[in-house]
UniProtKB/TrEMBL annotation, chain B:
GO terms for cellular component: plasma membrane. Its main location: membrane. This is Peptide/nickel transport system permease protein. Signal peptide: none annotated.
């Protein structure tokens, strides 16, 4: 997932922000060991799992879901060619086969990927799943009325750039071949070693053409997973899922599907959700949330209560909150000024503003501190914990600002503890010690998002954040630092306007690698190299804390999503 | 002396008596109301605290914006370390969760914003209200129609929603407290204008005004010398009640995130940040809420006292304490 409020390339804003909310919100025990609170921690089948959410699942069409948003409740209904490894922590950042027998077989330069479907795959109506259905599912995600997914398919598939979907263009995409009912071949216009990650997206879920009802498909999507939708009220506000008898655990090693029924109730206030989960009364004892974290004040209360503290899941999603500079605006064209600010940052007060050490980890690298991203530790401008104002003043003097400097920091007015006023004022206070006077410019959320992603209006100094569409360095670094991805008219994410030939070449070189461990190392090295340019000041990586009810067992939280995996939860 | 002049004198609006006696009478009446006196003392204290904010915080040795990361428990969401929200000899009322900023300093600086904005907004409301109210009462029929309908529209408009809309479109470079005061002032003058218009319509039929008109005085002179003193009483009364309502509007706007900007503290802003902390750090919420409560209560009681002191009927009751009989007699005399 890219950055939450950033609707990647202006794809359906509503669906994406929903997805992002779902993805960014995370939970689950990394520290705790993934066990429920009850005495008998062995999970059993049966019961009803209640899901208490803030955001309704307005999109339930596999074409419209963004990467991480498709990873939770929708993942119970949609199976994809590959999927996330449903395990705790770092092991959960691996990609594993789902409908396919393996994670994909590339040709020599990783431009052609071939998958074979498992035998015995069936939809909820008993009809077999075919490779043509997967091709059709991908094709319909190109239809303008079903927008919302990530842009990779359009960028990567040969001849897909202008494709308008199967409703307008009956011929379909030549880039996807289905030589037989169980084989599907993808032709890419450039080497993409990370294609197996892309194949986890819900766009790779099979959609039977005869059952496709266009924009109405989301009212009753045909299930290939362990549950089927039996009720969908008020555009996803209340969802009821029940077992899909045609699903066979023999073909699905990932989804555990313990509960008989999943009851999703959304549109709730986040404080109500946390209050209900902490009270854990009645049906709420068997409840989880897939989109609501504990806030700082709630955490303060929960940590003072042993029972509640034992029911908190902790998750780490690949995500970085940072300060972005626009070097085309003075004085940020001067690397020394950018470095001075890097030195002056007080990460302990920024971390506190973000909710304290339990909800945020100080960051000095742009890449998240996880192995799958290729995390390579570096701290080019060591600010210690509380900042180094003396070093900052020295650099400002060298830059010609011996008497100090006044700058404007742009932030959003969202109450998200990410790009919000709390973080901005913490930075303002820290820079004051270095002789930098910071004026704050708080913008309404959408205004902020529009301004920072338009090269014509981009401010010089602003708060930003970025999340991964999958746990790898590629989708984390390329949109932000690839010079060819600077978008002049439209949503631009390369806010540092970096167009460095050696960086671009290295991005291309790593994309050809199909050995993902090898690629990760190279992404880490690239991050370290780009870090020297001081185009960003990494601030912190968020940590997600979520409560779950007393009867909830088998809590699994992977580093891929940082979120409690609903397919693993048991309530008996 | 005509009946009308008697009535005017009774209403404390007779300008033919020496100026000092009205004010003396007012003070004498106000003095008899203990609640109003206490309220006045509280308001005076609050204003003093607001004015002396830099002095008081210097005395404490703190300021409202400096972060103290060591005074909050980072592992527990940033809850203040120690009992009573981290209150100590250094931080008299404790510190703010997450930031460790001094709460006493933020509270007294917040008083400046809350009181300053409310008073400035009241001045704007009164100025517009008097101008338009008098103009409507003295102007030609179509002027009255136009201004009165305009006033109706302003009164009918929801204050909060209008303020939100106005505050959202003004560029953020405009000084925020001034803007908030202006916006509240520009929207909330409707009732004052109505009261002034009604009072002016009554006054302009009185003999002394007619006499002035017959003597060839211009409209402006009549308004200034004969009418303004007469409308002062209801305006002061209403203004005293407007101040607390303006304080709550400012707090509400800051609460919604469109009031004054961080790091400038205001009570409304403190309430916004504090509402989620009511369980983990209750004093963080109770301090600005309590300050707001005391201020609004004191100003309301004072406003009530001022109205009573200016209202002859209530005043006569206060003075003599014989109640309804005399009151009805006075009323009867006035209208006979």
């Amino acid at each position: 997932m890219r950055h939450p409020s950033v609707t990647a390339r202006r794809v359906a804003a509503a669906s994406v922000s929903l997805v992002l909310a779902a993805g960014a919100a995370a939970c689950g025990p990394k520290d705790n060991d993934a066990k429920g609170a009850g005495g008998d921690s062995t999970p059993h089948k049966g019961g009803t799992l209640t899901v208490l959410n803030a955001n309704p699942q307005q999109d339930f069409d596999p074409a419209r879901l963004y990467t991480s948003g498709g990873g939770n409740v929708p993942s119970l209904v949609f199976r994809t060619l590959t999927t996330r490894n449903r395990e705790n922590g770092a092991a959960g950042a691996k990609v594993v086969p789902d409908l396919a027998t393996d994670t994909g077989r590339p040709n020599k330069d990783a431009t052609v990927w071939t998958y074979t479907l498992k035998k015995g795959l069936k939809y909820e109506d008993g009809t077999p799943v075919t490779s043509a259905d997967i091709k059709y599912g991908i094709e319909r995600s190109f239809a303008p009325e079903l927008s919302g997914g990530a842009p990779y398919l359009r960028d990567w598939l040969v001849g897909a750039a202008g494709y308008q979907g199967p409703y307008k263009d009956k011929k379909g995409l030549d880039a996807i071949e289905t030589p037989d009912e169980r084989t599907i071949v993808f032709h890419l216009n450039k080497p993409e070693g990370e294609f197996p990650y892309l194949a986890t997206q819900t766009q790779f879920a099979p959609v039977p053409k005869s059952k496709d009802t266009g924009t109405k498909y989301e009212e009753h999507p045909v299930s290939s997973g362990p549950y089927k939708v039996v009720r969908n009220e008020n555009d996803g506000e209340r969802l009821v899922l029940e077992r899909n008898p045609q699903w066979s655990a023999a073909t699905d090693a990932e989804r555990k599907a313990y509960p008989d029924r999943i009851d999703v109730r959304s549109g709730l206030d986040s404080s109500v959700i946390n209050q209900r989960l902490s009270a854990s009364q009645g049906a709420d004892a068997a409840a989880v949330t897939t989109d609501t974290n504990l806030g700082p004040a709630e955490l303060a209360r929960v940590t003072g209560d042993k029972d509640l503290a034992s029911r908190v899941g902790t998750g780490h999603f690949g995500y970085t909150n940072y300060i972005a500079f626009n070097p085309s605006i003075k004085p940020f064209d001067n690397a020394k000024v950018r470095q001075a600010i890097s030195y002056a940052i007080d990460r302990s007060s920024v971390v506190n503003a973000a909710g304290g050490s339990a909800l945020a980890e100080p960051a000095t690298t742009f890449l998240p501190d996880q192995k799958s991203f290729g995390y390579t530790p570096y701290d080019h401008f060591p600010a210690s914990k509380a900042g180094d104002p003396a070093k900052a003043r020295e650099l400002l003097k060298e830059a010609g600002y011996a008497k100090g400097l006044t700058v404007t920091l742009t932030h959003s007015n969202a109450k998200d503890f990410e790009t919000s006023p709390e973080i901005a004022t913490a930075i303002q206070d820290a820079l004051k010690k270095a002789g930098i006077t910071v004026k704050l410019q708080g913008l309404e959320e959408n205004d902020y998002s529009d301004k920072i992603h338009d090269v014509k209006t981009e401010p010089g100094f602003f708060l930003a954040h970025w999340g991964a569409d999958w746990p790898s360095g590629g989708p984390f670094l390329a949109p932000i630092f690839d010079g060819r991805q600077i978008v002049k008219d439209g949503a631009n994410f390369n806010t540092g306007l970096l167009n460095d030939k050696s960086v671009n070449a290295e991005i291309d070189a790593i994309n050809t690698l199909t050995d993902l461990d090898q690629a990760a190392k190279r992404w880490g090295a690239l991050d370290k190299k780009i870090g020297e340019k001081a185009l960003t000041v990494p601030l912190f990586h968020p940590v997600y804390k979520r409560l779950y009810g007393e009867d909830v067992k088998n809590v699994v939280i992977s580093d891929w999503t940082g979120v409690l995996d609903i397919s693993q939860v048991a309530v008996k | 002396m005509s009946e009308a002049l008697l009535a005017a004198r009774a209403a404390g609006t007779d300008t033919t008596v020496p100026a000092g006696s009205g004010a003396r009478q007012f003070w004498r009446r106000l003095r008899t109301q203990h609640a109003a006196l206490v309220a006045a003392a509280v308001v005076a204290l609050l204003v003093l605290v607001a004015l002396a904010a830099p002095l008081l915080t210097a005395l404490e040795g703190q300021d409202p914006t400096t972060y103290h990361p060591s005074l909050v428990d980072s592992a527990r969401g940033g809850v203040p370390v120690g009992p009573l929200g981290g209150a100590s000899a250094d931080h008299w009322l404790g510190v703010e969760p997450q930031t460790g900023r001094d709460l006493f300093a933020r509270l007294v600086y917040g008083a400046r914003v809350s009181l300053g904005v409310a008073l400035a907004a009241t001045v704007v409301q009164v100025a517009i209200g008097i101008t338009l109210g008098v103009a409507a009462a003295l102007g030609k029929r179509w002027v009255d129609q136009l201004l009165s309908r305009f006033t109706d529209i302003i009164v009918a408009m929801p204050l909060m929603i209008m303020s939100l809309a106005l505050l959202a479109i003004v560029p953020s470079s405009f000084p925020r407290p001034v803007l908030v005061a202006l916006v509240i002032g520009l929207i909330g003058w409707g009732n004052i204008a109505r009261i002034v218009r009604a009072q002016t319509l009554t006054l302009k039929e009185l003999d002394h005004v007619s006499a002035a008109r017959l003597s060839g005085w211009g409209t402006w002179s009549i308004a200034r010398r004969e009418l303004l003193p007469g409308i002062a009483a209801p305006v002061i009364t209403y203004a005293a009640l407007l101040v607390p309502s303006n304080i709550t509007v400012e707090a509400a706007l800051s609460f919604l995130g469109v009031g004054v900007k961080p790091p400038t503290p205001s009570w409304g802003q403190m309430l916004t940040a504090a509402d989620v902390w009511y369980q983990a750090a209750p004093q963080y919420l109770l301090l600005p809420a309590g300050a707001l409560f005391i201020t609004v209560l004191a100003l309301t009681v004072l406003g009530d006292g001022v109205r009573t002191a200016l209202d002859p009927r209530a005043a006569s009751r206060l003075r003599v304490g014989t109640g309804r009989r005399r009151e009805s007699k006075a009323a009867g005399g006035g209208t006979a």
